[in-house]
Design brief:
By secondary structure, the protein is mainly α. Helix content is 61%, strand content 5%. It has 5 domains: 31-62 and 109-211, no CATH class; 216-504, Rossmann fold, CATH 3.40.50; 698-845, no CATH class; 870-1078, no CATH class; 1079-1215, no CATH class.
Amino acid sequence: MNDIMENCQHTMTIEGMSAEAHELGIPVDEDCTACQNAKRSAAEITSKINDVVRYKEDQLPLQGKLWKELAKIEKEECRLQKAGDKPLEQYKANLQREKQKLRQQQSSYNMSEAIGCFFTAISNESKEERSYFLKWMRMNLDVIARKKLSGLRDEYKEKCCKFSENKDIIADLDRQISDSSLGIEHFMREMGQLYEAACSLPPSNAYRLQFQDLPSLGADLLLDGFPLELVDGDASNIPVKWVTDVLTELHRKVQPKSRLLVVTVLGVQSTGKSTLLNTMFGVQFAVSSGRCTRGAFMLLIRVKEDLKEELNCDFILVIDTEGLKSPELAQLEDSYEHDNELATLVVGLSDVTIINIAMENSTEMKDILQIVVHAFLRMEKVGKKPNCQFVHQNVGDVSAHDNNARDRNKLLEQLNEMIQAAARMEKLDPNMKLTDVMEYDPEHSNWYIPGLWHGIPPMAPVNTGYSETVYEFKKSLIEVLKSYKYQTLTEFLEWTRSLWKSVKYENFIFSFRNSLVAEAYSNLCVEFNKWEWDFQKHMYNWLATAETRISNTKAQSSNLDEFLRSLQAEAFQELTSQETTSLEKLTKYYDSKEGHVNLVESYRATFERSIKTLRIETENSVTNKLTAAIDFQKGMKKVHNVNEKHKAILDEKVLQLLAECRKRNEDLSEKQLKNKFEKMWEETVKRLNFKGLEKRDIVLDVFNQLRNKLKRNVGAVNKVLNEVTDLTEYGKTQFNVTDKHFDRGWYKKHITDRVGLSTNPKEQAEAWVKSITGQCTEFVSHKKKSKTDYHETYTRELLEMIDVKLKGIEKLKTNAQFEADLKLHICGFAAREFQQMHEDFNEDNDPRKHLEKSKPRYCSDFIDLFQKKDQSQKKAQEFTEHCLKSAVKEYVNKALGLDIVDAMLTGADSVKYSTRAYFQHSILKQLLDENKSENYVAYSRNYEGFVKDWILNRIIDQFSNSKALSDLQVKRFEAITKQIQKAIGKGKKTLTKSETILTLLKKICSNLNRDIVISTDNLGLALIQDKANTEEFIGYLQKSVNEMKTSLSAEVSQGCHIKEKLNSLPFKPQDELFKRMFGCGKQCPFCKVPCEAGGKEHKEHHASVHRPEGLSKRRWAKSQKLVVDICSTAVQSEHLFSNSDTEDGWHPYKDYRKFYPDWNIAPDASIEASDYWKYILTTFNEQFAEEFNAKPADIPEEWKSITKEQALKSINEVYNMK
């Protein structure tokens, strides 16, 4: 055979054999018209390629130098490494201009001849012809590229053996290989760049219009099964606009069937990744072709109908990555960084990641795993936990899986070590394990696949064991995919955009922002806020009932203590039940798997802690209020006993007088009866003992509690306390912060002229003092208005409030003197008010006063009894007017605040109060609508006070111009009237002939003792004649109750002064809404925007958008100009900051977490994200400068073109309020 082959003169190509086939009558597939047309179209392009490098420069110019420059600028926009000492916002504006210039240069190129032909061919309506064309193109291009690449590759491999000696040569060869590669993806890449350049032009531009159909073509190619380049490995960039519009168009074409699962493969060059995917899925990723393009390609596989239900998806999206290098080769052209970015992206996009390792224990395995481990670690922190499958290729022994148990354990150990090393690098928990960041099972996540060939190709036979093992792997993979929830094409696109943006920043974990994650977090916050309100509302209603029961109890003091213990036990059960219910709701929410809840798994513990904290806070509050209510009842018991004693004496005296008058059998006039009554009254009252409530020294109680609180301090503080002769003399004037209130050494250093950015610590302390004194004044005023007696828990609560606030200014280094002076100031004011409160209460409950009030009723009853009038109607009206009416009003007032909050949280504007982020959006939108500088100044100067006023005004707006408030009250009147009528009806049913009005009313009051507090002290029920008809009384009472409801409803329907009404309520809706919306109250350490994190116990503070630091009064020390830099930009740059927290030392912004570990300042989602605050500072620059006693900021020119509409659009997008 060898002789015949050597001597044979007649040789021909396989293609040339088609002519011979025709002569022999053998049909040739390629003879069909579609194939021949496609072949001609492909030849028309490829026949003109002589020099690949020059051809790419001439025919594919947009993807060369211009595109790579654009990629560098986009990365620099994120990293700001070359900003130097230039103002950051100005530097970013310059980068924007450079980008625009490069895009203009791109759009100056017309479509090249080659791209024109390519565009025409793939636009062909015949799917078959388009498919043939792409295959001919691939084959032709492979042939052309292989001529030069084969030699370059051989030389590359040879030089790599002595890497250190040939480093520069290898770098040059690497560049030549990249330049000499030419495939279909280069033509598609050029189309993408044409489209991106066109999109930078105005919508009506003719150049732009001619390319508007390109995304539709890209989508068609994906649907036909051709790969689309996701990441351009040469430029290390994603053409975001092109990929976005192609996938959007694809979604439009297939919706609603756009559910997909994503499988990606990672591995070092030439390890058989593409062959593996082609074998598994029957796809056509290019393998061993004449090109060497690095990057990532995505390919769409339709799922057959019978599998759709099992997999719960319509497509499997396969992503093939090419060209991860080993670290030694990665030193060239920052490719190690590129590989890290690529791995992070594809791992983040995938449901299952296949790690492809050539040879059983190859040396490059560790290198690639290092990159992969970083990628998985990053994903765990942003809420994704993909499955990981390790494929060991080219394994000689078919029983390798059994023999490699030890190696698998070794691999697991290595991976755990790598995870811990990576965690330290990413500044995370160093004790993490592999299973914390990926779904991995050593037994079922490792596959050993034999080599594809038996021997050395091309003559070696194919190894059937390869296909069999790959098939088993595929079956296992399908089973794994069944457990994953699909994502839609639009969601996949959002992940692509956000992941890519984040990997462009140096610190991925703290740069990640994703609208799907943001939406999932927002939805969780909305639900949590509902659960929190349900918890609070339930406990408030329970407490209101408990307080009513306490007020209605007639028990003695010893029994009251027992009653308190039983109520506390009951409260404990209620709290436990509510806590359990809330935790179950949280668990159920996470188990539902709805709304991408898996993306916020990391927040589960935060919200669990928040529920537990809510329980503890509510328990403390309930315990204090129950104790105060019981103590109040004990005090009232003494007054009640005195009043009862006086009442019994007077009842007896009236009846004695009545008997005397009747005995004389005289016809006395009303005037004569009154005179006799007056005489009896004066004589009786003279003999009564009117010892009432003891007057207590409240000021002393407040001072003693203050002294106990400060006893841990020594020296100067004790001296100050010992000098206090009269606490009420304190707090009469405004509190002044002085130098002596600070740590001397620290203050001296911070008050002197300083370089860089500065703020005066005294100013900050004064603003804080204003806030806390306002809050304490409000607290004391609220207690005083409650018309109850002082209780020691009030002072305890007040001092705890100050302590909590003091923790917030620890960084100002205020000393013990400051704490003592401030507490004396606040307690001085409080002591005066609390003493007055106690004295007012004693006076209101003075037994003599109480008796004098009842004198007219005693006189009237005496006359009625003498004249033998029927008292049924009168007593029914008196009971309704004097007892029920006040009780009903109190009941409605107690419940009204709760109802108002409910109405705000469930009404038309409820979305504003559903999360702190939405609340922030509504404030910013209204500020923009009003567009007044004084509003923005108030917002910036005193955010807490501004929010309080804003919420109060929203409640006033909602309830002052409608019947809403009266409707709430009428609804409550109707509900309680129904209860009263029910209690009367119950009493009527059990009525006996011998029953008196007195016993009937006691029964009715007993039936209502959980609803309202009814006082019958002044009713004189003992002075009712025996023949008074009880049944008639019930009829009159029912009628009076209905009349009362009508009269009260009419009264509230006339309206009222809403602000006064709100301030008079025991439960203030404005305060409750403030607590819910203000949250933790922390503000960004640089720009002072408020934290928007949900729950009480969040570990990390964050805000949706940050603002120029000048709006928080920060200025440059030398020029005194307001600062325009935005901290969300600064923390990604090389710039430095200095303030009191850094002890005046200069530190890189990017290391801000060293000083503020609980703040996560993520970069803006886009350049436009901060347009709102740029517009505000630009518009009111002069006014802010005047208010903050600084000079106006140097506004970048680009900011001046931002319109009010763009400002509104920016916050709508940031807060996802489309």
